[in-house]
Amino acid sequence: MPTSIKRIGIITGGGDCPGINAVIRAVAKTAIYKHNLQVMGIEDGFLGLVENRISPLTSLHVSGILNRGGTILGTNNRCNPSKHYVGDDEQGNPIFQNRLDECVANLKRHEIEALIVIGGDGTMACAAPLVQKGINCIGVPKTIDNDILGTDITFGFHTAVATATDALDKLHSTAASHHRVMVCEVMGRNAGWIALTSGVASGSDVILIPEVPFSLDVITDFVNSRMHRGRGFSIIACSEGAKPAGGDQMATQIDPKRPDPVRLGGIGAWVANEIEQRTGIETRHTVLGHVQRGGSPVAQDRILATLFGHHAMELLMGGAVGRMVVTREGRLQDADLCECAKGQRLVPPDHPLIRAARSIRTSFGEYITDAGHGRKKSN
Ligand code: F6P
Prior knowledge:
By secondary structure, the protein is α/β, with parallel strands linked by helices. It folds into 2 domains: 7-155 and 297-340, Rossmann fold (3-Layer(aba) Sandwich), CATH 3.40.50.450; 159-293 and 348-378, Phosphofructokinase domain (Rossmann fold). The chain contains 11 helices and 15 strands. The site of 6-O-phosphono-beta-D-fructofuranose has 13 residues, from strand 12.
């Protein structure tokens, strides 16, 4: 049923990513020009909602931002209103409070009748309890990691892949000149989408992703055999969440105050060091880090962001409640926001891109067994 909403809020949560401003622009312009609504912007994600930092967003605020990286509203990946960190107790343990009622009160104070929530799985998980408290939230899936349940693609991913591919291309020429192994650690958290996609796009020799645990023996055999075959160098695209078979992911920091306490990282350096020790081949590592989140969105992300923003408004004005914009098989659709917040979309180990990469002799560093006989073969 169409709705008679007069005022909406826009909130951007979690890590920033290219294309957020393009979504804000699409949502706000559709709301203002097509539906004659008032739009309010919430600063710094859910922290701004808890702290009542909310102000009007006019067409002037959202013009000229289509190609700008980051988010004009600011964001935050440390605040979950259901479990808001307020300090430490005497033993140094974090104290959390439930601040959902304040969020609801602040929304009411500004007469905001619905929220467009632009964020990843963590942000959707923050929004889900608000939906249960009667605040209509429409989600727009944002993350460079491409790991949100329910959608085939998130905006920001294409730009991160382009950045990672460009870096891997650049590492190719220096690796070839020095006859080295180059390991490039890319982001993605527990999902290997960035490493897989940029690895294939750059023709990397080895791709390491969390979904396919690797063996160092297999990687070193593979790197050595490339040397003997006269290739003289190897490029390894390594996801920050990659892990050895039977081992754990590596973290640079564990912070219990954050909704996601684990900051992954360090696996690229470890793999590079092990390869050099075991093969004697000079090996270097690069950590791409937050450059993957920065800069101007590529055309694909600007288009996706515009389609997502418009679709979110169409859903809202059509009477949808607690839905998230998704794409499935190339078509814009919607899914239950609370359901999408329940997990992460990982790379299926039999994904077509993995099969294609294997058939052109890209190694995923895992043991390949012949007809279940358990013989090692570095593919
Ligand atoms: O979710 C996006 C992401 O960039 C991940 O790929 C990465 O693990 C994490 O955020 C880094 O978070 P932070 O910005 O807090 O270091």
